[in-house]
Structures are given as structure tokens and as C-alpha cells.
Amino acid sequence: MKQIKAAVDKKQEKLAESREKSKWMKAEIKRLNAQIDSRDKLLKKRFRAMYVNGGNMNYLDVLLGSESFGDFIDRMFALKTISDNDQKLLTAQKQDQANRAAQQEELAKEQKQLEDGLTELNDLKDELLKKEEDQRSQLARLKKEASKIKEKEMKKDEEKEVSEAQTHAIAFENASDSNAVFIKPTQGYVTSGFGKRSFDNGFHPGIDIANSEGTPVHAAAGGVVFRAYHSSSYGNAVMISHKFKGKLFTTVYAHLSGYEVATGERVAKGQVIGKMGNTGESFGSHLHFELYEGQWNPPPHNGAVDPMKFIQ
């Protein structure tokens, strides 16, 4: 990145110098053009006068028309001066024309270098932009990875807290003499069943029941709430322990808009424990309902069973 930026700065300096040089060369060519045009007009007048007066024969007429030897000498020197000036004028004209041609050729080269330099500069800028974009993408990826690591750490802490809370609740829970019978925890239609899903080959440890947000959610059976909290994945969630003839079951109610029970509270079958929502890792209002034979377990959710087999 630093090398590219340095190259861009250096190229911009060279281009600035090239523009100044081109500007000076254009001004110099303009000056030579004006000087050549002015001299060209003067030379045309001289040639026209010579043609009208018979060219070089006019010089002989001037000399032969001398009235004395002194007058002859004066006329001869005058003619030489005119001839020398004409020669100097022609030489200067040729020199300026050569200089103009050289300047025009040099300007063309400078303009080509300027165009090439601009192309190289744009290429360097494009490379710099790509590097910066790659750097931003890499930074975003690193942040995402850091977020995932942090989330995993939080989930591990969360899993530990859930396990400890359930273990504590089990010690104070009374066992029911009835068989394990559960009711459907809310009204709605099942949008995703239990088990392997065809669209992502993932394991779904419960069922999803969809309905409008705010639909009441009931305890599927009597038990003790061992966790009522907000989870990064479950959203607002309630977890309940149930005992039937000494056997432990666990139900989970996730993505609630809110819950109406507290940790440690004993609930009855059918009691409203919260409202359906769309919190946590959720796409649309629904209840994610899980049922475990035994304690709740984190992924791969060992002990999870199909709730529909127990609902009556």
C-alpha cells in the first residue's frame, strides 16, 4: 500500500513537471510562429521588389549609375549591406523554422509521455483502490471472525449457565404421576418439522409454528421454568423442566417477542408464558419449539425428540 501510494505521488509529480514543460514548449512554438510569420512577410516584400526590378540585374544598374568612383564605392558597400541583411534574414528564418520543427517534435514526444503517464497513473490508482478494497474486505472478514469467536465464547458461557440452571431446578422439582403428555404450545401452522432439512441438510432439533407476532404461547406441560432470558440465537426464550413418573423432559420456547414468567417459577399446563415473535436468529414471526427426553443439550442437541409424537 505504501509503495503504491509513493509511486502515485511520484507519478503525479512527474506529470506536473511534464505539463509545465509542455506549457512552456507551446508558448515557445507560438513565439517562433509569430516571428517566422513576421519575417516571412518581410521576405515576401523583398522578393516582390527584386522581381519587379529585374532581380540581381538591378544591383548592376545601381553600380553603373555611379557618378564618381567614390559614389561607386558607397553604392557597392550599400548593396553589400543589403545583401548581407537579406542573407542574415534568410538564415534566421531557416534557423527558426528548424527550431520550430524540433520543438514540435519534442512537444509531440512530451504529449505522448504525458498520455502514457496518465494511463500509468490511472492504473496505479486502480491498483491502489483494489488494495484498499481488499484491505477493507480483509478487515471486515477479521471483524466477522472475531465476532464469531466472541459469539462462540458467549454461547459456551450460555450453555454452561443453562445446564447449571436446569440442574438446580431439577433438585427442587416435584415429579408427576401422569404419563408424559404435552399440548401444542401455540396456534398456527407448522412450517418446519423435526429432523434433517432438505434445503440445507441441517438438523432441526424442534418444530416451527408460524402465526402473527403477539400470538399467545402456552406451557406445553406443567413444570419449573429454569431459564427465561434473551439468547443471541434463541432470542427471547423460556426453558421448562418437566418430570413424569421420575423421568425428566425439557421444553424450549424460542424467538418470543417477550416472556411473562421468571426463572424458578412453577407453571401449569396451558399457562401463558410469552408471546410469539421474531427475535434472535429468526426470519419471520414464529415459535421454535423443542422437546428433550432428559436435559436440554447444545448442538448437536442430543436427546431432542419430535414434539409432534408427544403432543395430544
From TrEMBL:
Domain M23ase beta-sheet core: 203-295
Protein known as: Uncharacterized protein
Pfam family, one: CC_PcsB
Stored SUPFAM superfamilies: Duplicated hybrid motif (SSF51261)
Record field: compositional bias (Basic and acidic residues): 7-20
Key words, A-Z: Signal
InterPro entries documented for this protein: Cell_wall_metabolism_enzyme, Dup_hybrid_motif, M23ase_b-sheet_dom, PcsB_CC
Positions of the Peptidoglycan hydrolase PcsB coiled-coil domain: 29-99
Keyword Signal applies: yes
Region entry Disordered, spans: 1-20, 135-161
Molecular function (Gene Ontology), one example: metalloendopeptidase activity
